[in-house]
Amino acid sequence: xxxxxxxxxxxxxxxxxxxxxxxxxxxxxxxxxxxxxxxxxxxxxxxxxxxxxxxxxxxxxxxxxxxxxxxxxxxx
Length: 76
Description:
Layout: H1 9-22, H2 26-42, H3 66-72
């Protein structure tokens, strides 16, 4: 598929230099970068878990067993 992408002048000039130095084309650099970006963005992201409010006799420290954690947080 053919598409148009706007690339800032400074980045385009740098891409031309890198392409010439490596004996490749800007097209190949863009395709390689797209593959890397898609692979990175396809990875599952770690999301911050919101801790449920827990009552503790000693605020600032909570002693939980694995079973208690599994009851509080849904794991995939």
